[in-house]
Amino acid sequence: MFDKKELCAKITELYPDIGACGIDIDAFYSTAKGSWIIELKKDEHTLKHHLEKHDAKDCMDGKECVALGLEIAQLKKNIESKQF
Question: How far apart are CA 14 and CA 78, in angstroms?
């Protein structure tokens, strides 16, 4: 098993745009949902993504999580559109 710091570090490694854009990342395990909740924040923009246990394990094994990657890209697009 792994903890939230390890998961956040691995997500940031797989998706370096998170750090480059100044997006804060946090994670916690929801026993009620049986999944990890990934929170991404920058200014007034926030995103919560449910990462199933098997997807979190794949992420820790260095495999990209397509759904999370798409949401990160959308958050980045929303942030960039507000800067102009």
Answer: 20
* 58-82: b (≥16 Cβ within 10 Å) or e: ebbeeeebeebeebbeebbeebeee
Tokens of 50: 């449910």
Tell me the three-class secondary structure of the chain, residue by residue: CCCHHHHHHHHHHHCCHHHHCCCEEEEEEECCCCEEEEEEEECCEEEEEEEEHHHHHHHHCCCCCHHHHHHHHHHHHHHHHHCC
pTM here is: 0.82
Dump pLDDT digits (tens) for 20-38: 777 899 999 999 999 999 9
